[in-house]
Amino acid sequence: MNSQTEPSEKKKKNLNPSLSLFSLPNDILLNCMARISPSYYPKLSLVSKTFASLISSSKLKDTRFLQKTCEKILLVCFHYPTKSPSPSWFSLWLKPNQALTNDLEKKEESTGNALLVPIPSSYCRRPPTFMCKVGSECYAINRYCNPSFDLSVTTLGTGIWRKVPKMMTVAREDPIACVLDGKIYVMGGCSEDESKNWGEVYDTNTQTWESLPDPGFLRVSTLRKVEVMGKKIYISSNNWDAYDVYDTIEGTWEVVARMFESSVVVDYVRYCYTGTNFIWYGMKHNGSRRVNGLSVLERHCRAGSGHIEMANYGGKLLIIWDEFVYNARLRHEKTNIWCALIAFEKRNGDEEVWANVEWASSVLTVPLSCILLRHVMKAV
Predict the structure, then answer these.
(1) H/E element, 11
(2) Which of 189, 247, 264, 305 is deepest in the core (most CB within 10 A)?
(3) Phi/psi-derived region of residue 193, left when phi > 0, alpha when psi is between -120 and 50, beta in every other case
(4) Mean per-residue pLDDT for 50-57?
(5) Contact, 81 vs 369, CB < 8 A?
(6) Distances (CA, A) of 257 to 2, 239, 260, 286, 350
(7) Model confidence over 12-49: pLDDT tens digits?
(8) In whole angstroms, what is the distance from residue 366 CA to residue 322 CA?
(9) Strand 137-141 relative to strand 152-155: parallel, antiparallel, unpaired?
(10) Number of H-type helices and E-type strands within the chain
């Protein structure tokens, strides 16, 4: 009898509800989830309301930060002129445990193993906030909410945020911003008629705001991104052929011809897209050289607006571009957004760079009027 009842008693112990994962304290669940790649969060959020709540909480990000398990993901910003004046953000989601393929020359639909997912989602909770470090302090502008005058600051290591003593002169939504020599430059995100305070700069030493000169036509343009080079600030807009440049020493604006559509540094080599092909600059070489092995990709990049985004993605080059598609049967045009990941190999004594497209996929379909604005790498 004992030998017959013993297995059933063991079975009852295994079915003890007190051993259920859902009975664990939230702190332990957070520690477990923080060790899992965010790629799995969309599926995990469907398991239970508890999981969904924990995944959407800020505590999970804090736990990942403390455990040093944060991963960098790509966020992409679009502007839908006919839909909303506010930008729309998406995050690049890669299906876990799936091999990604190069679909550039395939006629069938992409597999869906790589997608741009609207934010917010269980994968990424909120759009990025502009943040910059000045000395021992970190400043932030929440760009993607209702128009705000606020600039926030925290002393590193405290985790306590406060508003700067003086607010911005103009309430802004989705401004572009950058930092240079301890000063924070904020532009746009307000009425195009705001000629006096369309751009302003915050001096972190004196804790005061000062208006920038009127940039002219730039006020009515769609702002894409901002870059700092030397003592000048370069603004990219829907003026595809030129930059609007602000000289912080002279306090003046000028328009200069654009040399490259996009560029990024990967392993001490600068890669650029000229609008027709990819080139590279090395520290040991004079002038530019063409990247070999990308003729098919270059042909696809030329099939859209010509605007592409490039990012350093774990030591490889991630490219995002648009490609126009005409459907003869439905008699309408659309735009496919593509992503590709590229690895590089130096040959012939570092005199040549050869590229290998590890995967390329159509990740989103948008209306023809949609504009690809910018990208951000964010830790989650």
Answers:
(1) helix 2-14
(2) 189
(3) alpha
(4) 86
(5) yes
(6) 89, 10, 9, 22, 31
(7) 445 554 456 667 888 888 898 889 888 888 888 888 88
(8) 9
(9) antiparallel
(10) 6, 24
| Per-residue pLDDT reduced to its tens digit, 366-379 | 988 888 888 888 87
Distance, CA of 77 to CA of 373 (rounded, Å):
6
Nearest of 186, 177, 183 to residue 207 by alpha carbon: 183
The residue whose two tokens read 């309301």 is: 49
3-class state of residue 138 by DSSP:
strand
What are 213-266's pLDDT values in tens digits?
A: 999 999 988 888 898 989 999 999 888 788 999 999 999 999 999 878 888 999
Judge if pTM exceeds 0.85: no
Residue 295's pLDDT is: 94
- What's the token pair of residue 62? 């804090």
DSSP-derived letter for residue 380 is: -
* CB-facing half-sphere around the CA of 282: CA atoms within 13 A: 11
Burial 329-353 (b: 16+ CB within 10 A, else e): eeeeeebbbbbbbbebeeeeeeeeb
Residue 41's SS3 state is helix
C-alpha closest to that of 367 among 109, 125, 88, 74 = 88
Separation CA 164–CA 189 (nearest Å): 19
- The C-alpha atoms of residue 339 and residue 365 are separated, in whole angstroms, by 12
Cα 71 to chain centroid distance, Å, stands at 13
pLDDT tens digits, 101-157: 999 888 777 778 899 998 877 777 777 788 889 999 999 987 666 788 889 999 987
Topology of the domain covering 125-258: Neuraminidase (2.120.10)
- Nearest Cα neighbor of 301 from 336, 254, 345, 263 is 336
What is the helix (H) or strand (E) element at residue 237, kind and residue range? strand 232-237
Report angle CA 25, 30, 33 to the nearest 5 degrees. 130
Q: What is the DSSP letter of 172?
A: B
DSSP alpha helices (H): ranges in 249-333? Answer: 295-301
Gap between the Cα atoms of 345 and 67, Å rounded: 34
The owner of tokens 């350093």 is 312
Domain ranges of the chain: 26-69, 71-120+259-379, 125-258
Query: 219 and 194 in contact (C-beta within 8 Å)?
Result: yes
- End-to-end Cα distance, the chain: 56
